[in-house]
Amino acid sequence: MAVRVLTDSVADLPAETARRLGIEVVPLMVRFGAEEYRDGVDLSTEDFYRLLAARPEFPTTATPSPAAFAQAYDRLAEQADELLVVTLSSRLSGTYQAALQGRELMRRRPRVEVLDSGTAAILEGFAVLRAAEAVRDGASLEEAREAARRAAARADMLCTFDTLEYLRRGGRIGAAAAFLGSLLKVNPLLTLREGVVAPAGRTRSRAAAADRLYEFAAGFQRIEELAVEHTACPEEAEALLERLSRLHPRERIVLSKMTPVIGAHTGPGLLLVGVLGDRRGS
To answer: For the chain, what is the mean pLDDT?
Structure first.
């Protein structure tokens, strides 16, 4: 039976990759006041940061509705008998629950399995990528789900911020709240642990933070996938990618602007390295 893979827009997969592997992306929502946009559909990354600079209010985000998932399920049911949905961490968003609820609203009745990746951003993307590649190669729904689960468990990230204010206002800061109140002239380093944002250290300069991101990637003895993501700091991202090409072929490193819904929670100045692979000594 044919299987299709769906995910949400936080997975941050390059559009060409999603098209090539037949991955359906259900967008989250970004709001500026009363104005609402579908993440990456009605609002490009460039337009988002123009609005962020021009508008007085902080943006907010919302999960896709269960109906949005149901519509995607019904559309893909014309092509497939089974659907695998991989979502961002349920501890960061209600998207996982919306995907589950969407099953109750379908007009058609394909089999739909929903996997909470426990991750976000490109780490979620790695899990989706492995699931879609497995389907392309003839895997069953169960095999694709296991490929996604294994990838999520082997993926890790490290990122640095200019400010934690956006995360604080959005309530997504988790254990990293310990940083607040002590960040004058300090560049925080954050990661994801057990599905939530967690502190991973701090440096006294942006250059030192970039060094730490490089060292993080160098701590892997085997790299399958490597990505550099950023929010409105393309020169820094390009410089970091150039350094990382010592560890992994440059043409295979994903360089991307993070989706607007992530930017709404981080603001400009986020620089992130994501790795799928095996750490040294593991």
So the answer is: 91
First to last CA, the chain: 37
Q: Write down the number of H helices and E strands in the chain.
A: 10, 13
pTM of the predicted model as reported, rounded to 2 decimal places: 0.92
For residue 184, pLDDT over 70 is answered with no
DSSP SS3 for 80 = coil
pLDDT digits (tens, 9 = 90+) for 94-126: 999 999 999 999 998 899 999 999 999 999 999
**Radius of gyration (C-alpha) of the chain in whole angstroms:** 18
What domains can you pick out in the chain, each with its CATH number?
Answer: 3-153 (3.40.50.10170), 155-279 (3.30.1180.10)
